[in-house]
Amino acid sequence: MALEMDQIKKIVQKIDELNLINPVGKIESFAEGNANEIFLIDNQYVLKVAKKNPKGIEVNDINTESAILESLNGKMHHMPELIYRNSNFNCYLSNLIKGEILKPFLFKMDEEKKKELGKQLGSFLYEFHSQKINIDLQSCPNKNYHTKRQHQASIINSYKDKSENIGKLITEISQIIELSLSESNLVLTHSDFHWKNIIIDTTSYKFNGLIDFGNVCLDHPEVDFRQLMGRYDIDLGIAMVLEYEKLKGEKIDRKLLFAHCALNDLWHYYGKENKDPSPWYDKWFNKKNYFINF
Asked: pTM for the whole thing?
């Protein structure tokens, strides 16, 4: 259900009363998703508010998301700074990261620009994965690592009987992930690190910041490479991984990287729309060695 502007004005009035920012002038609806609505305040701030379903139940845990941002305030660059959070309204206010989303610019970039951006993204991820927060994410709704894997597996496994070859490849990839089901190698991940959440400068193509922390959880570090490397641009993904490994001083688990990229591709392109997965098999068969050796 879309949010009423009167409700938004009540939240903004509360922010005004606290003198956290200059008196609010212009309020614009900025973006709307299935779980939340985002408003732009005076072209400087972002107000993110949870939406409610037809039964009046909020469909996104923005309180946890804002608590994560609050825990990271001042610890990292290229992230929204939390200014205000209100658990009663299930909303938060942060600064606006200037720039545009990466998506329409990625394929306009030459190889050098992609490589440089990849280095910046790899450096950011290394720093983000190193952060510690005092929030029990495993007990939060939709953030438990094992629950997320079970949900993904329920979709993926339905494709095993499409053909013998597809079944074998899915089984092999699933086993790689299952063998890594140890909480000792989990880090803080963004888990939605893709071209609509990466903000860049449209002139220099440099990384300005990352948005949308609603899917942050503890997971394998490799999951944050799966979108760009597995679905959008392999060269940008490789530059990210190499910079990350340089800073870490060792390679990430390349087999696990391959597994997350392949299953994520299957899940998004075929699992969600019930498409024939044969092209997926053709794309990912024998790619494991490439991921291990690049």
From this structure: 0.91
